[in-house]
TrEMBL record:
Record flagged with keyword Hydrolase: no
Keywords of the record: Acyltransferase, Transferase
This enzyme's EC code(s): 2.3.1.4
Pathway: Nucleotide-sugar biosynthesis; UDP-N-acetyl-alpha-D-glucosamine biosynthesis; N-acetyl-alpha-D-glucosamine 1-phosphate from alpha-D-glucosamine 6-phosphate (route I): step 1/2
Domain N-acetyltransferase: 45-191
Gene3D superfamilies: 3.40.630.30
Organism: Cryptolaemus montrouzieri
Single Gene Ontology MF annotation: glucosamine 6-phosphate N-acetyltransferase activity
Protein family membership: Belongs to the acetyltransferase family. GNA1 subfamily.
Coiled-coil regions, chain positions: none
Full protein name: Glucosamine 6-phosphate N-acetyltransferase
Protein backbone atom coordinates (compact mmCIF):
# COMPACT_ATOMS: atom_id res chain seq x y z
CA UNK A 1 0.00 0.00 0.00
CA UNK A 2 1.48 3.35 -1.03
CA UNK A 3 1.86 6.40 1.19
CA UNK A 4 -0.95 8.42 -0.41
CA UNK A 5 -3.48 5.58 -0.21
CA UNK A 6 -2.34 4.48 3.22
CA UNK A 7 -4.33 7.20 4.99
CA UNK A 8 -7.36 7.51 2.73
CA UNK A 9 -9.90 5.62 4.88
CA UNK A 10 -11.59 6.93 8.04
CA UNK A 11 -10.79 4.09 10.43
CA UNK A 12 -10.96 4.70 14.16
CA UNK A 13 -8.25 3.35 16.43
CA UNK A 14 -10.96 2.11 18.82
CA UNK A 15 -14.75 1.98 18.94
CA UNK A 16 -16.05 5.57 19.23
CA UNK A 17 -19.09 4.30 21.16
CA UNK A 18 -16.76 3.78 24.13
CA UNK A 19 -16.65 7.57 24.53
CA UNK A 20 -20.42 7.79 24.86
CA UNK A 21 -22.23 7.88 28.19
CA UNK A 22 -19.13 8.40 30.31
CA UNK A 23 -19.85 9.15 33.97
CA UNK A 24 -19.32 12.92 33.87
CA UNK A 25 -21.68 13.38 36.85
CA UNK A 26 -18.98 11.88 39.08
CA UNK A 27 -16.61 14.72 38.15
CA UNK A 28 -18.82 17.71 38.95
CA UNK A 29 -16.75 20.68 40.01
CA UNK A 30 -13.63 19.85 38.02
CA UNK A 31 -14.82 21.80 34.97
CA UNK A 32 -16.35 25.27 35.19
CA UNK A 33 -18.36 25.90 33.11
CA UNK A 34 -19.29 22.25 32.85
CA UNK A 35 -18.27 20.55 29.58
CA UNK A 36 -18.10 16.88 28.56
CA UNK A 37 -16.69 14.78 25.74
CA UNK A 38 -20.12 14.84 24.06
CA UNK A 39 -20.71 18.55 24.75
CA UNK A 40 -17.23 20.14 24.66
CA UNK A 41 -18.44 23.74 24.86
CA UNK A 42 -18.18 24.72 21.20
CA UNK A 43 -20.13 23.08 18.37
CA UNK A 44 -17.00 23.09 16.21
CA UNK A 45 -15.09 20.86 18.65
CA UNK A 46 -15.28 17.07 18.45
CA UNK A 47 -13.84 14.58 20.93
CA UNK A 48 -13.20 11.22 19.27
CA UNK A 49 -10.74 8.35 18.84
CA UNK A 50 -7.69 8.86 16.63
CA UNK A 51 -8.35 8.11 12.95
CA UNK A 52 -5.98 6.81 10.32
CA UNK A 53 -6.53 10.04 8.37
CA UNK A 54 -5.31 12.21 11.24
CA UNK A 55 -1.83 12.22 9.75
CA UNK A 56 -3.29 14.84 7.40
CA UNK A 57 -4.98 16.72 10.23
CA UNK A 58 -1.82 17.67 12.09
CA UNK A 59 -1.73 15.01 14.80
CA UNK A 60 2.02 14.53 14.57
CA UNK A 61 2.61 18.29 14.38
CA UNK A 62 0.61 18.63 17.59
CA UNK A 63 2.84 16.04 19.28
CA UNK A 64 5.91 18.12 18.42
CA UNK A 65 4.65 20.65 21.00
CA UNK A 66 5.20 17.88 23.54
CA UNK A 67 8.34 16.06 22.42
CA UNK A 68 10.45 14.99 19.45
CA UNK A 69 8.47 13.08 16.82
CA UNK A 70 10.92 12.56 13.96
CA UNK A 71 10.32 12.29 10.23
CA UNK A 72 7.31 9.97 10.13
CA UNK A 73 5.98 9.21 6.64
CA UNK A 74 2.30 8.57 5.89
CA UNK A 75 3.09 4.89 5.35
CA UNK A 76 4.93 4.63 8.68
CA UNK A 77 2.05 6.35 10.46
CA UNK A 78 -0.47 3.94 8.96
CA UNK A 79 1.70 0.94 9.77
CA UNK A 80 2.02 2.00 13.42
CA UNK A 81 -1.70 2.80 13.58
CA UNK A 82 -2.52 -0.68 12.26
CA UNK A 83 -0.15 -2.32 14.76
CA UNK A 84 -1.75 -0.46 17.68
CA UNK A 85 -5.23 -1.34 16.43
CA UNK A 86 -4.35 -5.04 16.12
CA UNK A 87 -2.66 -5.15 19.53
CA UNK A 88 -5.59 -3.52 21.31
CA UNK A 89 -5.26 -1.64 24.57
CA UNK A 90 -4.36 1.69 22.91
CA UNK A 91 -6.93 4.45 23.26
CA UNK A 92 -5.52 7.58 21.63
CA UNK A 93 -8.23 10.22 22.03
CA UNK A 94 -8.20 13.55 20.23
CA UNK A 95 -10.10 16.82 19.99
CA UNK A 96 -10.64 18.09 16.45
CA UNK A 97 -11.36 21.66 15.38
CA UNK A 98 -13.99 20.90 12.72
CA UNK A 99 -13.70 24.38 11.23
CA UNK A 100 -10.01 23.88 10.48
CA UNK A 101 -9.98 20.07 10.12
CA UNK A 102 -7.15 20.08 12.64
CA UNK A 103 -6.31 17.99 15.70
CA UNK A 104 -5.83 20.44 18.56
CA UNK A 105 -5.57 18.20 21.63
CA UNK A 106 -4.76 14.58 22.39
CA UNK A 107 -4.14 12.08 25.16
CA UNK A 108 -3.19 8.42 25.10
CA UNK A 109 -4.64 5.80 27.43
CA UNK A 110 -2.70 2.52 27.43
CA UNK A 111 -4.10 -0.49 29.28
CA UNK A 112 -2.08 -3.35 30.71
CA UNK A 113 -3.22 -6.80 31.82
CA UNK A 114 -2.11 -7.77 35.35
CA UNK A 115 -2.29 -10.88 37.51
CA UNK A 116 -2.73 -8.74 40.64
CA UNK A 117 -6.12 -7.25 41.58
CA UNK A 118 -7.95 -10.39 40.47
CA UNK A 119 -6.30 -10.37 37.05
CA UNK A 120 -7.11 -6.69 36.77
CA UNK A 121 -6.51 -4.05 34.14
CA UNK A 122 -4.21 -1.12 34.84
CA UNK A 123 -4.16 2.13 32.85
CA UNK A 124 -1.39 4.59 32.00
CA UNK A 125 -1.89 8.15 30.78
CA UNK A 126 0.65 9.37 28.23
CA UNK A 127 1.26 12.02 25.55
CA UNK A 128 -1.16 14.68 26.80
CA UNK A 129 -0.96 17.81 24.67
CA UNK A 130 -3.10 20.83 23.76
CA UNK A 131 -2.29 23.18 20.90
CA UNK A 132 -0.79 26.35 22.36
CA UNK A 133 -3.31 28.56 20.56
CA UNK A 134 -6.30 26.84 22.21
CA UNK A 135 -5.33 27.35 25.83
CA UNK A 136 -7.97 28.70 28.22
CA UNK A 137 -10.85 26.53 26.96
CA UNK A 138 -10.34 23.76 29.57
CA UNK A 139 -9.33 21.40 26.77
CA UNK A 140 -6.45 19.95 28.79
CA UNK A 141 -8.81 19.02 31.59
CA UNK A 142 -11.41 17.78 29.11
CA UNK A 143 -9.07 15.41 27.25
CA UNK A 144 -7.50 14.04 30.45
CA UNK A 145 -10.84 13.55 32.20
CA UNK A 146 -12.28 11.88 29.08
CA UNK A 147 -9.63 9.16 29.08
CA UNK A 148 -9.78 8.98 32.90
CA UNK A 149 -13.48 8.14 32.68
CA UNK A 150 -12.82 5.81 29.75
CA UNK A 151 -10.30 3.85 31.86
CA UNK A 152 -12.91 3.43 34.58
CA UNK A 153 -15.50 2.35 31.99
CA UNK A 154 -13.04 -0.26 30.69
CA UNK A 155 -12.75 -1.67 34.22
CA UNK A 156 -9.26 -0.45 35.13
CA UNK A 157 -8.45 -0.41 38.83
CA UNK A 158 -6.17 2.62 38.54
CA UNK A 159 -4.60 5.11 36.13
CA UNK A 160 -1.05 6.35 36.61
CA UNK A 161 1.10 8.98 34.91
CA UNK A 162 4.49 10.64 35.12
CA UNK A 163 4.67 14.40 34.80
CA UNK A 164 6.95 17.40 35.25
CA UNK A 165 6.95 19.29 38.54
CA UNK A 166 5.16 22.21 36.89
CA UNK A 167 2.17 20.00 35.95
CA UNK A 168 1.59 18.47 39.38
CA UNK A 169 -0.91 21.21 40.42
CA UNK A 170 -2.88 20.66 37.18
CA UNK A 171 -3.30 16.93 37.78
CA UNK A 172 -4.06 17.48 41.48
CA UNK A 173 -6.85 19.85 40.44
CA UNK A 174 -8.64 17.01 38.62
CA UNK A 175 -8.32 14.31 41.23
CA UNK A 176 -4.88 12.75 40.73
CA UNK A 177 -2.62 12.19 43.73
CA UNK A 178 1.14 11.85 44.09
CA UNK A 179 2.41 8.31 44.57
CA UNK A 180 4.28 8.00 47.89
CA UNK A 181 8.02 7.79 47.32
CA UNK A 182 7.91 8.97 43.71
CA UNK A 183 7.84 12.74 43.30
CA UNK A 184 6.69 12.79 39.67
CA UNK A 185 4.35 9.80 39.57
CA UNK A 186 0.65 10.48 40.01
CA UNK A 187 -2.31 8.15 40.22
CA UNK A 188 -6.07 7.99 40.40
CA UNK A 189 -7.78 4.91 41.80
CA UNK A 190 -11.27 3.82 40.86
CA UNK A 191 -12.89 3.28 44.25
CA UNK A 192 -15.91 1.47 42.87
CA UNK A 193 -13.72 -1.46 41.79
CA UNK A 194 -12.47 -4.31 44.03
CA UNK A 195 -9.12 -3.73 45.80
CA UNK A 196 -8.78 -0.20 44.41
CA UNK A 197 -7.28 1.02 47.67
CA UNK A 198 -4.32 -1.32 47.41
CA UNK A 199 -1.16 0.72 46.67
CA UNK A 200 0.37 -1.85 44.32
Amino acid sequence: MGGANAISSSIYLFDPDLLKNLDWASLRGYLSPSITSEAPGENWLLVRPLKSEDYNKGYLQLLTQLTSVGNVTPFEFQSQFNSMQRAGGYYVTVIEDLQKNQIIAAATLVTEFKFIHNCGLRARLEDVVVNNTYRGKQLGKLIVLTVTLLARKLGCYKMSLDCKDSLIPFYKSIGYKLEPGNANSMVIRYENLPNSGDPS
